[in-house]
Amino acid sequence: MLDNKDNNNTSKLAVDDNEGAGGSNHEQRSACISPASSQGGIYPVELVENFGLNVHRIDKDVQRCDRNYPYFTLENLDKLRNIICTYVWDHLEMGYMQGMCDLVAPLLVILDDETLSYSCFCLLMERMSANFPHSGGAMDTHFANMRSLVQILDSEMFELMHENGDFTHFYFCYRWFLLDFKRELLYDDVFTVWETIWAAKEMSSSHFVLFFALALVETYRDIILANHMDFTDIIKFFNEMAEHHDAKTVLSLARNLVLQLQTLIENK
């Protein structure tokens, strides 16, 4: 997978025919050696087939990932594929899920190195993996926290959401939280927003991602309220606004929202 793996780590498939057992109790096993293991090992064919299914899904997504961004030539798409395949092999219990390519891509653009990008992606996934389905339930927590924030900081908006079909479940934020807003922003803005989210953990709030999400909603508050948007309207609106947001303005508003909540708590 990655360039710095041991030369002994091969992916050759061999089947043990167990001929010495007179053809009985055949157990097909693979001699596929783990690319992540220094000692290797023998793995069941089922495991190798599972990995193959994941690779099939990876190949489909890699070809579609940021195809219009000039960095992603065929050579660099291969690097992206290698990083994802290696991560999935090391985390087969999770497997590949849509969105992983989106999280790797900006790291590879910045670092332009497979090994470094893989290492950074592993650390990023320590925080982000719980957002993916069947991986920890963090998404439900995000939705609940968004509901509370809007209810506290913008009761008028909350009432509109509640009355117009009740979309206070905040499912329209799903892609935002899954990818740290990667598909909502221009590439250069992705780098700025990601670094701010990471730094905010030490500087202001470990939940800055929530305040950035709320700031996105509040940026278009007047439009949402004036048009009495329902759930379908707001999904369509934000899909059409993808990559058209003023990231600096949204970031500034997000910081102000953090301050507003901190002030409310201090004055309580």
TrEMBL record:
SUPFAM superfamilies: Ypt/Rab-GAP domain of gyp1p (SSF47923). Residues 1-35 are annotated as: Disordered. Gene3D superfamilies: putative rabgap domain of human tbc1 domain family member 14 like domains, Ypt/Rab-GAP domain of gyp1p, domain 3. Pfam families: RabGAP-TBC. InterPro entries: Rab-GAP-TBC_dom, Rab-GAP_TBC_sf. Residues 1-201 form the Rab-GAP TBC domain. One of its GO terms (molecular function) is GTPase activator activity. Keywords: GTPase activation. The keyword rRNA-binding does not apply. The keyword Lipoprotein does not apply. This is Small G protein signaling modulator 2-like isoform X3. It comes from Aphis craccivora (Cowpea aphid).
